[in-house]
Structures are given as C-alpha cells and as structure tokens.
Amino acid sequence: MSTGPVGSDDDTRERSGAPPREEGMAVAAVAIDFLLVGVAVVALWVGGLRFVESASTLARRLGVSDLVIGLTVVGFGTSLPEIAVTLDAAVVGRADIAVANVIGSNIVNLGFVLGGVALLGPVVASRTLVRRDGTVVVASAVLCGLVCRDLTVTRVEGALLVAAFLGYMLAVVRGDEPGETVAAAVETVTVRLVLTAAVGLALIVLGANLLVGSAADLARVAGLSEWVIGETIVAVGTSTPEFVASLVAARRGLGDVAAGNLLGSCVFNALGILGLAGLLVPLTVAAAAATSVLWLIGLCVLVIALFATGGELSRGEGVPLVLVAVAKWIVDLV
C-alpha cells in the first residue's frame, strides 16, 4: 500500500489552503505593474522638465515675456505627458482613460498642485492672467462639459475644441510684446538644446506607453473602473511636470510662470488634447464623466475667485483647493 500523499499537488494545495501557483504569478504581475507605473512617472517627470527647460531658454532668446512663456511654452511642455497618454489611450481603445486623464489632470493641477504650491508660499499673478486667461480656463471647462454631456466626443466636436484652442493661443501670442526675430533666435540654438528637447520627448512617449498599459492592468486587478484609474493614478503621473515647474517658478518669485503654467496646461488639456483625441478617434466614455466635469467647472470658478480677491493665492486660500481635490477622489473611490 502506498504511503505517499493521495491526489494531485493541486488537490493538496487546495486542501491545505495554500495559494495556487496562479495566485503567486498574479501577485508578481501586480508588483511589476506598480513598478512600471513608478518608472513611467519618473520618465514623464524627467522628460517634461528637460523639454520645458530647453523650450523656455529658446523662448527667452526670442524675447517672450514670462506670462506668455508660462501660458504657452511651459504650459505646453508640462502638458506633453497628458498629450502622449491621452492620445495613446484613445488610439488603443481606452476612451475612459483618455478623457479621465484630461479632466483628472486639470483637477490635480488646480487642486493639489496649485493649492499645494500656495501652501508653501503665496502665488502672485498679474491682472491680465486672472482676467483674460482665468476666464478662458472657466470657459474651456464649460465647453468640455458641453462636449461630454452625451458621453461622446465626436470628430466634429474635437475639431471645434482644437479651433477654440488655436484661437486662444493666437490671442495670447499677439497680445505679447514682440521680441527678437525668429531668424536671430535660430542662430542662437545650440545642439545641446535640441538634443535635450529630443531626449525629453522620447522619455515622455516611453512613460506614456508604460503608464497607460500598467494603469489599465491595475484597474482590472483592483476591480476599479478605468475611469477612476485615469482620474487618479494616471492624472497624478502626468501632472508631475506641472508640479515641479510651478513649484520651482513660485520659489523663484515668478508667479506669472507658476500660475500661467497651470492655467495654460488646463486650457491645453480641455481644448487642445481632448480635441486632438476626438479628431483621431471618436470617444465614448463612462457616465462618471458628466459629474467629473461639474467638479472641474466648480474648481475653476473657485480658483479665479480666490485670485481675484487680491491678485494672489495665499496659504490659507490654498487649503480649500486641496480639500476640493481630495473630496473628489474620495467620491471616485467610494
């Protein structure tokens, strides 16, 4: 008579309560996804900063003002992660991540980033930034809400968003004082600036691909919707360049660059990036989009109202911005 164990190894594991081999592999896969998310965030962060530094240097050589640099060059540069992630997600058929990243990044920018920077020290902004660009930020959020009201973004709607964005950029650039000629600026461009910008763009594209794939995997494992993952993990990951750029600018006393970067990024996201995504692939999103846009509109109005009270965002005024962003996340996760 045999004295060995009766039944297969799988039966023995099942009776003893030990996890099957598949569970161990699943845990390893989750750990790898978390690691890849971390690598993606670092790539987006470093890539965004490298691009911003190079582009800002060129802009200053053109004689562009700090206000316009913050709204356009820095705003565009720090929004490159959002562009890469949103367009990548749209193309691979993950519309919820694409749109949630746009809306979530704006909430992170105005809530956690702007509020957090204000907690470290007052953020001063010019009247032009508050009146003109603040109004555009609110209007862009409202337009985003109108587009998403039926939970779809068509190519026609995408084209309208892009057209509105280009009109805004034209108004900003034309309103600035002229600097050097483009020809003169081109002569000052160094190989180092070009290479740095190219490396930054490469890191951003790499980080975007890693972040979208890993975040989608984690959403499935955790039982969370891709919308929630896009509005939280992905949004924070793509907003790291905005945080770094705004923090550095604020600490150097460049309030227009710090605030302009965040307001400019919000306009880029709501009009330019969402519009480009809709132009590439018509999007259909979850019902949560309608509620999220309302939160975003309210946060935009709150930011401009706080700036309008004294031309700056004080430490005390940074608190409600952070609390609104925290409350939104709690609603999402619960």
Blueprint (SSEs and pairs):
Layout: H1 9-16, H2 21-61, H3 66-91, H4 95-120, E1 123-124, H5 127-148, E2 152-153, H6 155-174, H7 182-187, H8 191-222, H9 226-251, H10 255-280, E3 283-284, H11 288-308, E4 312-313, H12 315-333
Antiparallel strand pairs: 1-4, 2-3
Describe the structure.
The protein is mostly helical. It has one domain: A middle domain of Talin 1, CATH 1.20.1420.30. It has helices at 9-16, 21-61, 66-91, 95-120, 127-148, 155-174, 182-187, 191-222, 226-251, 255-280, 288-308, 315-333; strands at residues 123-124, 152-153, 283-284, 312-313. It has a two-stranded antiparallel ribbon. Strands 2-3 form a two-stranded antiparallel sheet. Helix 2 (21-61) packs antiparallel against helix 8 (191-222), helix 3 (66-91) packs parallel to helix 10 (255-280) and helix 9 runs antiparallel to helix 10. Mean pLDDT is 80; it is low at 1-16 and 178-187.
Short description:
With 334 residues, the chain is mostly helical. It has helices at 9-16, 21-61, 66-91, 95-120, 127-148, 155-174, 182-187, 191-222, 226-251, 255-280, 288-308, 315-333, and strands spanning 123-124, 152-153, 283-284, 312-313.
Please describe the structure with a list of short key phrases separated by commas or semicolons:
82% helix, two-stranded antiparallel ribbon, 334 residues, A middle domain of Talin 1, mainly alpha
Here the CATH topology equals A middle domain of Talin 1
| Cα-to-Cα separation, first versus last residue | 58 Å
Integer-rounded radius of gyration: 22 Å
Task: Give the H and E element order.
Answer: HHHHEHEHHHHHEHEH
What strand order characterises the main sheet? 1-4
CATH class: Mainly Alpha
Query: Structural class given helices, strands, pairing?
Result: mainly alpha
Structural domain tally: 1
CATH architecture group name:
Up-down Bundle
- Overall average residue pLDDT: 80
Major sheet attributes: 2 strands, antiparallel
Number of strands: 4
Shape: globular
CATH superfamily: NCX, central ion-binding region
What percentage of residues falls in helices of 4 or more residues?
A: over 70%
